[in-house]
Design a protein that fits this description.
The structure holds two protein chains of two kinds.
Chain A (H helix, E strand, L loop, with lengths): L5 H18 L7 H4 L2 E2 L6 E2 L22 H21 L3 E5 L2 E5 L1 H8 L5 H30 L6 H15 L4 H12 L1 E2 L3 E5 L1 H19 L3 H5 L10
Antiparallel strand pairs in A: 1-2, 3-4, 3-6, 5-6
Chain B lengths: L24 H20 L3 E6 L11 E4 L2 E11 L6 E7 L12 E5 L2 E2 L4 E2 L3 H4 L2 E5 L9 E3 L13 E8 L10 E4 L2 E11 L6 E8 L11 E4 L4 E5 L2 E5 L3 H6 L2 E4 L15 E5 L2 H4 L8 E7 L11 E4 L2 E9 L2 E2 L6 E9 L17 H14 L2 E7 L7 E7 L15 E3 L5 H18 L2 H32 L5 H29 L3 H4 L7
Parallel strand pairs in B: 1-9, 2-8, 10-18, 11-17, 14-18, 19-26, 20-25
Antiparallel strand pairs in B: 1-4, 2-3, 3-4, 5-8, 6-7, 10-13, 11-12, 12-13, 14-17, 15-16, 19-23, 20-21, 21-23, 22-23, 24-25
The chains are: A alpha+beta, B alpha+beta.
């Protein structure tokens, strides 16, 4: 963690810095250090007034940083992690056939689908339903920990990671949609019926909570710890 | 428009609030929800039990249900081979609140499609797959490890009724599920059978449903109603059977003799004898039979154990054993026949006994008087076709006097030679008399007489021949006779002419012939 990218990237970054150092005279400084506020919606920099103001351009509420971002993100991440356990242990789908009802958890579905011919589908389910939510939670935890420790390494990667997590967020609900659609469509009583299981509720909660966590995380915090001395010798 | 450079203003750092944010409610709620689910899952987990089966055919971990009266009460979670590799051990997670069902005599069996002679069951499992069925026991002590039944029990515990134990020497066509009939009405089923530990017989368990079980009293007779019972009597054939089904799959029937119908119903697991057929069942049961030894001085070929002992056609006992004995001292071989005599079958009912009376003494007095009146045992032929013998007691007024030594063991009853044996003896004496006839001498005399007769006949033939020659047409006798007869004819004619002449001329006798007439 944190060492991703390897030496090659660092080399390019150094080269970039050297180029920048040669050309650019003003070092990149966080707006907060100048006492300015950036608008989250339109990116306008403005001087804060006495009270918390609104963006003069787009009317977005302004703050130096998101209110209690770290704390709130932690709360949501922990909640998501808590919900992730029952989401994987409880059945998400109950298939009722003449042979009786068979509850299936996500992992059982993956195993059920795994076959010499059906492994791609199984892999899709595995990635979309098990790996991505856990990866999101882990990524957020990583971001939080690095921000709290004031780490300065791989800032750009961390921002990219954050954006990726933000991007994926809304797609994690595909699973829930598929499940509910299946349950709605497969109602061949009395031969066969599919019902959503309790695990689905927790799975949806995981998705929603990770999205909330991403939403409450302020990526500007990543740069707050960046030392301003970086450019002194430039 | 470039701004003049100012001193950097102090850095505003957002104040750290001591009070934790309200957002922490979210993970708390999530944790609570998770905990609540976990707790309900744990609480919803009933007891886990293991069931041993012979094979796991049709069973599937995670799929197979345990059902009781059609309600799922558990799910099979794992199936593994037993430690001795002879069977499988299925782990079943039962629903909550099923602890009270899991007692020592609760039974489990796999419902699969089964087709036996009597019934077809479990066809639904062709579609739904096998499931494990449970029958709740009535014991008190809970149990968690069970041994599954290989065949479904015939009778569920919630069926009112009583089971009875039937002892039989031969299973016949019985099987689990074989019907039990009462007056040709099916009132129960055979629920199981097992070989006695010593291998001498079988114990059949039969279940009779309520309310019919009250017709089973201690005096009830059970018999094999399998197949046809064909009997031949003076009135012809009679065929008895319980039902067409019992012909195919066998059956057990029971009935209580009318005389003893008023007894209270027999208790659970009362033991009965299972008789071969109705006739055997309805013979009075042998209570305390008298064992008697009969020594016959003749061949007992055809006398088998089980042969009847009759008194003037009424069976009063049966032959138990036929064997040879060698007296060690005298080296004499005798063939004693051991029989069981039943005093009650003589119509003697020891019912009006005074308490002081001893039935044994009464029986002895009875037999003593019978022997004194000339009752003896005799071997008789029961069937000329098969040569089967039976023992008959009958009155022989001219039999040699005898008595019974009641202290001897075994008791020896006096016997007389068999009827067939007497016939043989008289036949033998006839043969002896025939033997003593002088058949040789008679034969010689007859031969001589025959020779003489031969000679007589040949001389008679010679006489007849010569007689024939005499009367032959060419014989001189015949010729002479013919000429003689011709002469006689002529003479007769001459006489007639003379007669005529004299008629016309009677005077001729006096005057002689006249000339004129010439």
């Amino acid at each position: 963690m944190g060492r991703r990218g390897g030496a090659k990237r660092r080399g390019t970054r150094r080269a970039r810095r050297r180029r920048r150092g040669a050309v650019v005279t003003t070092a990149p400084v966080a707006a907060i250090q100048r006492g300015w506020q950036s608008c989250e919606a339109c990116g306008l920099l403005s001087r804060p007034g006495a009270d918390a103001g609104a963006c003069p351009r787009c009317g977005e509420e302004l703050a130096f940083r998101k209110h209690r971002s770290i704390e709130r993100t932690w709360a949501f991440v922990i909640a998501a992690a808590v919900c992730y356990v029952p989401a994987n242990l409880l059945p998400v789908m109950v298939t009722t056939t003449a042979a009786g009802s068979a509850p299936d958890t996500i992992m059982e579905g993956v195993i059920l689908l795994w076959s010499p011919t059906g492994w791609p589908l199984s892999l899709i389910v595995l990635i979309a339903s098990i790996m991505i939510p856990s990866a999101k939670i882990l990524a957020l935890v990583y971001l939080l920990v690095t921000v709290q420790r004031g780490s300065v390494a791989n800032n750009a990667e961390r921002v990219r990671l954050f954006r990726t997590v933000e991007l994926i967020g809304r797609w994690s609900m595909v699973d829930v949609f598929v499940d509910t659609f299946t349950a709605a469509l497969v109602q061949l009583q009395p031969l066969m019926a599919v019902e959503p299981g309790p695990g689905l509720l927790f799975f949806a909660a995981v998705v929603v909570l990770t999205m909330l966590a991403v939403e409450s995380f302020d990526p500007r915090l990543i740069w707050d710890a960046a030392p301003s001395e970086e450019v002194v010798h430039a | 428009m470039p701004e003049p450079v100012e001193l950097p203003s102090s850095r505003t750092v957002p104040k750290k609030e001591r009070r934790p944010s309200l957002v922490w409610i979210v993970p708390v709620v999530a944790a609570l929800a998770g905990a609540w689910v976990a707790v309900t899952r744990v609480l919803a987990e009933g007891p886990t039990i293991t069931i041993d089966f012979r094979s796991a055919e049709g069973l599937e971990a995670g799929k197979t249900k345990v059902r009781y009266n059609g309600v799922d009460v558990g799910t099979m979670t794992a199936i593994r081979l037993s430690d001795d590799h002879l069977g499988v051990v299925a782990t079943v997670r039962m629903e909550p609140k099923t602890e009270s069902f899991l007692v020592a005599d609760t039974r489990f069996w796999v419902v699969r499609p089964r087709i036996s002679g009597a019934n077809i069951s479990g066809l639904g499992t062709l579609i739904s797959g096998a499931y494990v069925r449970m029958d709740i026991g009535q014991a008190r002590d809970e149990q968690r490890a069970f041994v599954g039944l290989e065949t479904p029990p015939i009778v569920m515990r919630d069926v009112p009724g009583r089971s009875f134990v039937l002892k039989t020497s031969d299973l016949g066509s019985l099987d689990s599920g074989t019907p039990v009939f009462y007056r040709r009405l099916q009132v129960g089923e055979v629920v199981g059978y097992e070989l006695d530990p010593d291998g001498s017989g079988l114990t059949v368990k039969a279940f009779v449903q309520a309310p019919y079980d009250r017709y089973v009293t201690s005096a009830t007779r059970f018999w094999h109603a399998s197949g046809l019972d064909v009997s031949m009597s003076a009135t012809g054939f009679s065929v008895q059977t319980q039902s067409l089904m019992s012909i195919l799959i066998g059956g057990i029937a029971f009935e209580t003799p009318v005389a003893e119908a008023a007894l209270p119903p027999a208790g659970e697991n009362t033991s009965f004898l299972l008789h071969r057929d109705r006739a055997e069942a309805f013979r009075a049961p042998e209570r305390n039979p008298l064992e008697v030894r009969l020594v016959f001085k003749q061949s007992v070929r055809g006398l088998a154990a089980g042969a009847p002992v009759e008194f003037r056609g009424i069976q009063v006992g049966q032959v138990v054993e036929v064997g040879a004995e060698v007296d060690v001292k005298t080296l004499a071989i005798s063939v004693p026949v051991k029989i069981h005599l039943e005093g009650a079958r003589f119509g003697v009912r020891f019912t009006d006994l005074d308490p002081g009376d001893d039935p044994t003494a009464i029986r002895r007095r009875l037999w003593d008087s019978l022997i004194a009146h000339g009752v003896r045992a005799q071997l008789r032929s029961g069937s000329l076709l098969t040569g089967a013998l039976f023992v008959a007691f009958d009155v022989f007024p001219d039999a040699a006097p005898a008595s019974i030594d009641w202290n001897a063991k075994p008791l020896d009853f006096p016997t007389v030679p068999g009827a067939l044996e007497g016939l043989e003896a008289s036949l033998a004496s006839i043969v002896r008399k025939i033997d003593q006839l002088p058949l040789q001498a008679i034969g010689d005399d007859v031969a001589k007489a025959l020779v003489q007769l031969d000679q007589t006949l040949s001389s008679a033939r010679g006489a007849l021949d010569s007689a024939g020659k005499l009367v032959a047409p060419s014989s001189p006798l015949a010729t002479e006779l013919t000429t003689t007869l011709q002469e006689v004819t002529r003479a007769a004619r001459a006489i007639r002419v003379l007669g005529d002449y004299l008629e016309r001329h009677p005077e001729a006798l006096l005057r002689g012939k006249s000339g004129e007439a010439r």
